[in-house]
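Chapter review: from sequence to fold.
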Amino acid sequence: MKATKYFFMLALAVSISFISCETEDTESCDAENLSDDFNCPTSVDAVATFCSDGVNNSYYTFGGTDYQCTGVEASTCDAAIQAIGAKLIEAGCSGKKSGSIDAANIKLTAMAEKLLEEVRTKSLCQ
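The token string follows.
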């Protein structure tokens, strides 16, 4: 009888832990101004935002357009970062500062890595 009582209590505890570890897809975002990196005139809004839920979805938003990453790792966002750089140059940013495009790419990648790390550390169940 004691064995079934302990088994029932163990099953209840395991069930509660699974229920409490259900993850919500809560999205976090971080923004970065790229004006200095791309030598943009003050009339150009050069703010790019990176958003991710850390589990399924990550993307950059720039100029009202979402640029999807192919995963939830910063390395999966290279195409999005390149597209944002091209849009900044089209918008009138010269990109002529020494290493400006590389610096902006590094800044955007670092922003993504930082936010992804924060999102993952917030989740206790992963």
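Two observations follow directly from the output. Residues 27-122 form one domain. The two ends are 36 Å apart (CA to CA).
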